[in-house]
Design a protein that fits this description.
Strand order of the largest sheet: 1-2
Strand content: 5-15%
Number of helices: 7
Order of helices and strands: HHHHHHHEE
Structural class: mainly alpha
């Protein structure tokens, strides 16, 4: 139904998987929306908000995939650098690995070290809580 009305995200991103990942919230929204249903006094707004959130998350994932296709022509170090151009705030190695699954952790770490050395990014924290921000 969404696809027929112009919402193409479901063709490229599994909305079912997004719902599965948030099934507790899904069931809460269903419960809240069906309260007083037998009295014809229920409120659909909690479920509508939940589902619109799922659609928004789907479109964000779709956008990330399209951006990945645009950046895949860049070298791997340049793609790591491009992550800092696209994202705001703190970025962890795991975030980069998730956005660029074809880049090895060794390449990510080497590129991060080079970017810190050149002053392009700043290292924050240490150990497991290490993150990086663009200067």
């Amino acid at each position: 139904m969404l696809y027929r009305t112009g919402y193409i995200v479901g063709k490229y991103i599994s909305l079912e998987l997004l719902i599965e990942k948030t099934k507790e919230t899904y069931y809460e929204a269903l419960k809240d929306s069906s309260a007083q249903w037998h009295e014809d006094n229920n409120d659909y707004l909690p479920f509508i908000r939940y589902y619109l959130g799922v659609l928004l998350k789907g479109y964000k994932e779709f956008q990330d995939r399209v951006e990945y296709l645009n950046y895949r022509k860049l070298s791997k170090p340049n793609r790591v650098k491009a992550v800092f151009d696209k994202k705001l705030g703190k970025i962890r190695k795991a975030d980069i690995a998730a956005l660029c699954p074809d880049i090895s952790m060794t390449t990510i770490e080497r590129t991060l070290a080079e970017l810190v050395t050149t002053g392009y990014i700043e290292k924050i924290g240490a150990g497991r809580s290490t993150a990086y921000i663009k200067r």
